[in-house]
Amino acid sequence: MTEKKIQGRDFDIDDIAVNPTQRTSLGELACSRRRFVTGSMAACLAPGAGPFLLLACSSQPAGMFTDALRPEIGFAPVPVALGDKVDEVTVPQGYTARPFFSWGDKVVNGAVDWRSDASNSAAEQELQAGQNNDGMHFFPFPDAPNEHGLLVVNHEYINDTLHTNGPTISENEQGHKQRPMEEVLKEQAAHGVSVIEIKKDDAGQWQKVYPSRFNRRLTANTVMDISGPAAGTTAMKTLQDDTGRRVLGTLNNCAMGVTPWGTYLICEENWKNYFVNRDQQDWQNRPAHKRYGIASGASSHYNYWESVDERFDATPKAEQKHSGYVNEPNRFGWVVEFDPFDPESRPVKRTALGRLVREGCTCVLADDGTMAFYSGDDTRGEYVYKFVPEGKFRADAPAANRDLLDKGTAYVAVYHADGTGEWRALVQGENGLTAENGFTTQADVLINLRGAADVVGATPMDRPEWVAVHPQTTDGYVTLTNNYKRGVDPDQPLNAANPRADNDHGQILRWREFDQNPAAKKFHWELFLLAGPVLQTQPKPGEFAALEGDRFSCPDGLWFDGDGRLWIATDYDELEPEYAGQGTNQLLCADPVTREVKRFMTGPVGAEITGLTGTPDGKTLWFNVQHPGLSYPASDGVTRPRSTTVVVTKDDGGVIGT
Ligand code: FEO
Ligand code: CA
Ligand code: CA
Ligand code: CA
Question: Where are the beta strands (DSSP E) in 201-327?
Fold first, then answer.
């Protein structure tokens, strides 16, 4: 989600930094100690150290990260798209991009057509595509994997465009914001996930199959199970759910993941914004609220559903069973697994992975079935995590894989300045996660995984977004989208992995597990690139020249295709002065060996680009145009804008990117 403004509405939805730990990380210490040894290290952590910093603080074995096969990247890059009237998607010559799946499109059988005045009811919205298409994945049918499959698309949040005349907001006598029930129900119905069956027609064009027995919508009100160590504990029980094992809906589904056994992992990002706890004292003492940034004032941060739906009012109510809905926020922030091929299946929140403001959940699989699932926690100064299941993936025994995500170990990353890193276990009783520190059970650790990561000394990062895993080397890559308070606010000191003060442009960091073992406790890492201005001259203090090729800012979406091309989608606000000259948000393609970046696509003004997926043969690519600002995809200047999944093919039928 764009950090500062959404459709002209001024609120910091992503990004109220709440990390209270202001330690110097071990990584910084390592670097500053070396500074005393060699005078040349003096610039080690200074803003403006530029590429020098990368050299000074890196000790990778020669050839690490560049032993991958070089992918063919053959297209002629497109220029930046400047101006506030840009309302189109531009791809290189020889490629065709076409709007494929937009907010309001029919999904569930029985849906009615979308109406361009947004007059569809909440009940109608429940059967149509939601808004803000974000993370997604193409699941092929085995008999025609490049022609037929299911496209699963997250709907992260809603825009004011959902309602004919914008949202209706009033205030009651206590100063609490109030909303009409019908609007709230429509907003809840426009959240969640769509599953659509898609197929190539006789002319080779992708079409949506409708009606289809696979088509499905998950919303903020779909019944879901809770499993793993936190399920059934007191902290998961509410007035509505005496079992602590059953929850309604999923919220703010940003990026995603896919398991080797073919299920989809929905990730719950800024769910914290939907709740309020008006009891200041309780909020102060409740890490599961305060540490995650839940509102403690008059109203929630986002759209005030609590005014008509009591489960979003997390103020404790001693007179009610389980104190009302004080625990409802504990039931969000998880990875939610579901099988897209089984329309009757009930999604499951897997608590073993821990509770975060979770961007995505990307799997790496070793030949012997060992796995890890990587996640970024996207708030300023938060951390990078992995989860290692106890069991191994077995291709020959599908039933054995079903609950693999219920048992395993969560870890958080520590980046040392010498280019090594550690995964520190987030296990009750280890690394200071004791009762004295507030962690009596593993459920305590998982529900407040952020607080646990604070205790073990994780490295605070510049807003970790997507993780991608190289298909050949299994190296992990994470986008650190930006952090304008890094090195400026004393709460956000520089460190080796986040070396730029006032970091408007972001960076991509990559790592390799020791022995390329997903379960390793140590890794090597380096900065892959620093985004931002490409300089024609020697860098001046405060400037960097690490980016080779086409300029971009704020990397967010990140995905490897099967040939090892790294696709980077951006999310910045092009109207803000720091992005002047940058044009609209973009999709770029990078070579992990040479680090060269080429701009593949520019989007409509106001939109973020996200949600990357493709067919196994690499000949179809889908991406999402999220919250376009004008009238995309209609481009008639009249119709309201619709978040849209775009399909890209090469006119000669070749592989995308070649
Ligand atoms: Fe929903 Fe961190 O982007
Ligand atoms: Ca973002
Ligand atoms: Ca987004
Ligand atoms: Ca994102």
Answer: 206-208, 216-218, 223-227, 246-248, 253-258, 264-268
458 burial type by CB count under 10 A (0-12 exposed, 13-18 middle, 19+ buried): buried
Evaluate whether residue 563 is within a structural domain. yes
Buried b (16+ CB within 10 A) or exposed e, 42-59: ebbbbbbbbeebbebbbe
What is the C-alpha to C-alpha distance for residues 174 and 161, in angstroms, rounded to an integer?
Answer: 28
Q: What is the DSSP letter of 462?
A: B
Please indicate, yes or no, if residue 504 is contained in any of the structural domains: yes
Q: Give the CATH number, domain containing residue 452.
A: 2.120.10.30
Any domain includes 548: yes
Q: Is the pTM of this model over 0.85?
A: yes
Q: Is 173 exposed, middle or buried (0-12, 13-18, 19+ CB in 10 A)?
A: exposed
Please check whether residue 388 lies inside any domain of the structure: yes
Domain count, the chain: 1
Q: What percent of the chain has pLDDT over 90?
A: 84
pLDDT tens per residue, range 4-18:
433 333 334 555 667
Determine the atom of ligand 1 nearest the C-alpha atom of 359.
Answer: 2
Q: How far apart are CA 348 and CA 354, in angstroms?
A: 14
Distance from Cα 255 to the centre of ligand 4, integer Å: 6
Domain extent, residue 248, equals 2-59+77-650
Cα 642 to ligand 1 centroid, rounded to whole Å: 18
- Between the CA of 459 and the centroid of ligand 1 the distance, in Å, is 20
Pocket of ligand 1 (CB under 6 A): 1, 14, 156, 254, 269, 359, 378, 465
Tokens 């400026």 belong to 488
